[in-house]
Amino acid sequence: ASASPSGCARQGAMAAAMNPDEMTRRFGDEVFGAAVPDIKADSVVLDIAMHPLQDVCAFGSIAGTVELWKYGRAPVQVASKALFKDSCRSLSFSADGNRLFAAGKDGSIVALDATGAEAARIPDAHSSAITRSLHFASVMLATGDEDGTVAVWDMRVSKPVMRFEGSARKRHLTDSVSAFAFSASPGPTLLATSTDGTLGVVNLRTARVTDRSDQLEDEHLSVAIMKGGRKVVTGTLEGGLCIFSWGKWGNMDDRYPGLPDSIERLVPVDGDCLLAGCGDGSVRLLQVQPNRDVLTLAELGDNSIEAMVPSRDGTLLALSAQDDVVTFVDTSSLAETAAAASPGVGAAAAAAAGGSSRARAAAAADSDDDDDDLDSDEDGDGLVGAAARAAAAARAAGRPLRGVSRGAAAGMGGSDFFSDM
């Protein structure tokens, strides 16, 4: 495993080779660069997790190892843990960064503690290969497998609090779980997409699957919550965006079919724009309602984007594309580019979302006996929200905001995940 300064130039070199017209078409007025070198992992990377408080990332590999790195101008590998006999499919950090949860093809879940040691192992969490996981609401972990089973775990006790086996008769998913999203309001809700062509909705308060979308003759591969929680967007195998209105889960109310290949991953930038990691190796900035392809942020070759995760402050995007290289793309100016792409739309959407957001918040606060763990709002509000949270955390800790040097701020906020390694 090694850092690859020359490899990080894939995005910058691509921009440098373009003529001005082509550069404007792909990047608008801002040419996004790669400020952090690529990292070459020990084997093919299947998933990436970014620490919520420090410049630390974790890679899960096809060999079953989890690599831990401090990223920056001079990346350093801190540890490599062989956790599974088969591949490591999914990774999630806890909200405080003191736990890293890894899920494997063998159906097991492993938790690493703040020293990097194995804190817990659930050997038979699923009877089939785990495909996706999501940490949410402080202590909860959702996992999904190849059979469509969704389980929700209280990781304080490493026990499932609910499990939904794949079954069409119960509105459950019937094929591989491809993505999760969580919303705390109007009530704690877990969204799960499946390759069976449906979107499942779990009410975490009542522990019931309350809705399942009509079956699409396509596969849902990714999901994001947009427009202040009023819209849910999924990416499909055929390159389309399916847009649902919150609470109206039966059929989508809009569809954008515009991309040439599958949409494997979605990351919100703000309420109106998101990043799509595609099957052709590209990362595109898309606007939602009105729907359009704004620009191509990066191209990683012909392989499909396997993992796409923003850094804790939203200034970097970590990518892998079915190989052993993790690429970091500078997204520090992307919010401004997204806002410029839809002048007036963001303000109108914010005004329209105001009443809806207030209603959702009021509904969430309606019950005084709600579990605070589930009320923790981790809707994944995009790169803009990540940047705001990082700034607030820095101010609260009495630390300066991170400047040009990323490596110098590796210990910023919270306990040191690698303090005893």
Largest sheet: 5 strands, antiparallel
Strand content: 35-45%
Shape category: globular
- In the predicted model, the low-confidence regions spanning at least 5 consecutive residues are 5-33, 346-371, 376-380, 399-421
> Order of strands across the widest beta sheet?
1-2-29-28-27
Number of distinct helices: 6
How large, in whole angstroms, is the Cα Rg?
A: 20 Å
Helix content: 10-25%
Total count of strands: 29
* First and last CA, distance: 18 Å
Class per helix and strand makeup: mainly beta
Overall pLDDT score: 81
Lay out the secondary structure.
Blueprint: E1 2-4, H1 9-16, H2 20-27, E2 38-40, E3 45-50, E4 56-61, E5 65-70, E6 76-82, E7 88-93, E8 100-104, E9 109-112, E10 118-122, E11 130-136, E12 140-145, E13 150-154, E14 159-164, E15 177-183, E16 189-194, E17 199-203, E18 208-212, E19 220-226, E20 231-236, E21 241-245, E22 254-256, E23 263-268, E24 273-278, E25 282-287, E26 292-299, E27 307-310, E28 316-320, E29 325-330, H3 334-341, H4 345-364, H5 372-375, H6 382-396
Antiparallel strand pairs: 1-2, 2-29, 3-4, 4-5, 5-6, 7-8, 8-9, 9-10, 11-12, 12-13, 13-14, 15-16, 16-17, 17-18, 19-20, 20-21, 21-22, 23-24, 24-25, 25-26, 27-28, 28-29
What does this structure look like?
- The protein is mainly β.
- The chain contains 6 helices and 29 strands.
- The chain has helices at 9-16, 20-27, 334-341, 345-364, 372-375, 382-396, and strands at residues 2-4, 38-40, 45-50, 56-61, 65-70, 76-82, 88-93, 100-104, 109-112, 118-122, 130-136, 140-145, 150-154, 159-164, 177-183, 189-194, 199-203, 208-212, 220-226, 231-236, 241-245, 254-256, 263-268, 273-278, 282-287, 292-299, 307-310, 316-320, 325-330.
- The strands form 7 sheets. A 5-stranded antiparallel β-sheet has the order 1-2-29-28-27. A 4-stranded antiparallel β-sheet has the order 3-4-5-6, with no helix packed on it. A 4-stranded antiparallel β-sheet has the order 7-8-9-10, with no helix packed on it.
